[in-house]
Give the backbone structure.
Amino acid sequence: MMKFLSGGVILILLSLIINGCKLPANKENVVRIKGSDTMVRLTQMLAQEYMKTDSAAVIQVAGGGSGTGVAALINGTADIATISREIHKNELTRAIAEGHEFKVDTIGIDALVVVVNAGNKIPFLTISDLKNIFTGKSRNFESVGGPDLEITPYGRENSSGTYEFFKEHVLKGSDFAPSVQVLQGTAALADAVSKDKKGIAYGGIGHFMGRKDVRIVPVKISDKITIPPGGLLTPEAIKDGPYSLKRYIYLISDSKGNKKAADFIGFVKSPEGQKIVKQLEFIPLY
C-alpha cells in the first residue's frame, strides 16, 4: 500500500539532501562571526579550511562593519567579532558592564590603499591631496596633479573600521564631505570606481589587488619616498617600511564564551591559518 509523507518530513529530507545528509549542528559547534567587511573574504576562506579539519563545526560569517561586529559580540548574537581597527574604550566599558571578558587576537596586517578608475593615470597623491579630496576642498583631479576631470569620491559607512581609520589617519579628524558617495563594503567601492572614470575610493588592499579595472595610486609620503614605488605595494613596504596607511586586523572573542570559537582562533594563528592570511593579500604575523 502506498504511503504518503507529511510536508514536515519532506522538508527534513530535502534539508538533509541539500546539506549532504549532515544533521543540524549542536549549538556548541556553531561559531557566529560578524564584523569587518574588509575581513569577510578572509574569514570565509579561513572558515572553509577550518571546517575541513573539524567536521562537526559550523562557522557562520557575516559583515556589516567593525562596530556592528563588536555590538553583536556584546549582545550575544556573535561569538567572534572581526575588526580592522583598535577596539574603542567605550566598547570595552560596555562589554565589562554586560559581564564579558574580551580577548583580542591580532591575526595580521592590512594596507589601506586608494584606487581610481583604470583609465586615470594620475602619477601619485599625497596625504594632503587625499584629505583635500575627501573633505571636498579639491573637486577636480587637475588640482592634485591629475587629468582635468571632476572627482567623484566614494567611501564607507561610519560603522566601518576602514572609515574610522581613514578619517583619523588621512582626514586627521576632519569630516568627510557630503559629496562622498557612501557604499557598504569595499567590494562595492571597487565596483563603483571600475565603472566611473571620475571615481576615487579607499579600502583594504585585498579587494583591489589583481583587478584590471581599477588602479592603486602611489602615495607620496615625502619628497623622497613614494609608496608603492612603481605602483607595487610589497609586503616589506607594508610591514617594515615607511608606508603609513596600515593597520592590524583582529578577532575579538569572549574568554568565557564558545570553546569552538577559541579553537577556530587558534587555527587562524597557526602556520596553516597564516598561509591563508597571506594568500588573501594581508600580511601574516610570521
Q: What stands out?
A: The chain has two domains: 10-109+248-279, 110-246. The longest helix spans residues 40-53. The domain at 110-246 is CATH 3.40.190.10 (D-Maltodextrin-Binding Protein; domain 2).
